[in-house]
Amino acid sequence: MNDLTFAYLDNDAPANDALDAFVRAHPDGNAYQLTAWRRAVAAAYHYPGKVLVARRGADLAGLLPLCEVARPFGRARWISLPFCDLGGALADSHEVAEALAARARADVGAARAAGLELRCSAAGGEDDAALAGRKVRMVVNLPGSAAALLGSYPPKLRSQVRKAEKNGLASEVTQDAAAIGAFYDVYSRNMRRLGSPPHSRAWFDAVHRHYGADMFLVLVRSENKVIGAGWVLLCGDKAVIPWASTLADYNALAPNMLLYWAIQAQLCERGVRQFDFGRSTFGEGTYKFKKQWGALPVALDWREWDAHGVAPAPAASNGAGSKLRPLIESAWQRLPLTLANKLGSRLRRYITL
Description:
It is a single chain. This protein is α+β, with helices and mostly antiparallel strands. It has twelve helices and 13 strands. It has helices spanning 16-25, 35-45, 94-110, 128-131, 146-152, 155-166, 180-194, 201-211, 255-269, 285-291, 320-333, 337-347, and strands spanning 4-10, 49-56, 59-69, 77-80, 90-91, 115-121, 135-141, 169-174, 215-222, 225-235, 238-246, 274-281, 296-306. It is globular, with a radius of gyration of 21 Å. It is an enzyme of class 2 (transferase).
């Protein structure tokens, strides 16, 4: 690849508009690789972002978005990308993608960073045995209309969507910043129920501000109360849902069914042809929920290297972490919501999943 030249551009470089056009047009491009994600990370959590660009002459051949993510102790790591499932290089060939990753591995030590982490998607084609226990993203291809989508569902799935409507639930699609508060209330309550620190409200304000027309929210109401909410990011004819939550006390009314139906119906009408339901563990509950909508698994391939560009050997586990986690989750579930949100906002910047 001797014909390639490399350069790093920061989040405010004028060339980012052209890079975003490349991401939107690429068959593997996703909303996280848009400049908006790095800008939101920088605005909410103060982690610098940049993009490594490969060119052949004046022509763009590929890019690798990166954020410098701090840790409580020690040097920052380069991650592509934090707080999401997918990052990694996007290029016009596999060879260029590998060259971008190799260049980042070579540069990370000189930049005094602790290492590099790339969050990529596997090539696909694995059978169920190979996917067992692995993290996958669930992807569905959408037809040209909501009517065609509904007609493609088996009778049981259609009846579950209608059940939510018969229970008096209603959905709303919006891009209004005023909806963030309703979304955050459902999201943060759900995170406390799961025993997990939530993102800060400032994070969602930043995502809304920087994505603009490339995002929308769906709210599900029972009478006047918002009981379900989802946040969708757009990238050309593809979309992904990073966050979706419902209030557990209302789950008998099937708000999650109406939520995901409303999202997919809206995407069909917007001309989106591929919807990524996000990360699940193959074979587990959330995987099965997403699979019923016709989504198929694609394995995630996350890799990391140290400051010398060497992949660390897998660490042996004594099981202490798995034993401690339920205790931490149980303690978090008992926190008052206001305190959980305040503490979570401070802790979440160090939890990059």
